[in-house]
Design a protein that fits this description.
The complex is a heterodimer of chains A (114) and B (113). By secondary structure, chain A is mainly beta. Helices cover 0% and strands 48% of the residues of chain A. Chain A contains no helices and eleven strands. In chain A, strands 2, 4, 5, 6, 9, 10 and 11 form a seven-stranded mixed β-sheet that branches. In chain A, strands 1-3-8-7 form a four-stranded antiparallel β-sheet, with no helix packed on it. In chain B, the strands form two sheets. In chain B, strands 2, 4, 5, 9, 10 and 11 form a six-stranded mixed β-sheet that branches. A five-stranded antiparallel β-sheet of chain B has the order 1-3-8-7-6, with no helix packed on it. The chains are: A mainly beta (114), B mainly beta (113). At the A-B interface, strand 4, strand 5, strand 9 and strand 10 of A face strand 4, strand 5, strand 9 and strand 10 of B.
């Protein structure tokens, strides 16, 4: 079946611009996660949704970052007034049940802020 | 945030050789996962480990969950060129935030044909 998809795959933004990154999880997956991966590093947790409820946003680096999943399927990560330090790959993952530990990742969106 | 210590950072091996990499932490983890990431792609789940001492295989890959629950290792036998990539360990803790994967910095594997 189809895996997790993300769009766009690449995004170049000028400093100060707002961006929106989209994630389509595997159909029927309850849990959805966003991670940020800096160059040469492992992914770091940003936020977690169970269906449409955002249960944890402790990893969001600032109040410029906002995520939503209004209907419990597609999710959008929005970054306002982008800064150069926001440049990274943003990964989305989903898992089938709330008790499942196996998270399946999308290909990521590479954001470059110039 | 908390990081897992993954080693080696990189390795170059000849095709056909066996590979071993490991991951350690100062904290206890209840689940260990191993992922492989190719350039421009997201991490792909290879093996999941749920019990201390558990040894699990997936084809040429074998992983173990350490008895202390603070470490794990991954072995790849008879490496082939398509094994090239970055391997990440990831752990899950119990309690609050138990769904947050904590990742190591990765082991970059290069295979010389």
């Amino acid at each position: 079946g189809a895996g997790v998809s993300q769009s766009p795959r690449y995004k170049v933004a000028k400093r100060g611009q707002d961006v929106a990154l989209r994630c389509d999880p595997i159909s029927g997956h309850v849990s959805l996660f966003w991670y940020q991966q800096a160059l040469g590093q492992g992914p770091e947790f940003l936020t977690y949704f169970q269906n449409e409820a955002q249960l944890d946003k402790s990893g969001l680096p600032s109040d410029r970052f906002f995520a939503e999943r209004p209907e419990g399927s597609v999710s959008t990560l929005k970054i306002q007034r982008t800064q150069q330090e926001d440049s990274a790959v943003y990964l989305c993952a989903s898992s089938q049940r709330t008790s499942s530990h196996e998270q399946y990742f999308g290909p990521g969106t590479r954001l470059t802020v110039t | 945030g908390q990081q897992l210590n993954q080693s080696p950072q990189s390795m170059f091996i000849q095709e056909g050789e066996d590979v071993s990499m490991n991951c350690t932490s100062s904290s206890i983890f209840n689940t260990w996962l191993w992922y492989k990431q190719d350039p421009g792609e997201g991490p792909v789940l290879l093996i999941a480990l749920y019990k201390a001492g558990e040894l699990t295989s997936n084809g040429r890959l074998t992983a173990q969950f350490g008895i202390t629950r603070k470490d794990s290792f991954l072995n790849i036998s008879a490496s082939i060129p398509s094994d090239v990539g970055i391997y990440f360990c990831a752990g899950l803790q119990s309690g609050a935030g138990s769904y947050q994967l904590t990742f190591g910095k990765g082991t970059k594997l290069s295979v010389i044909p």
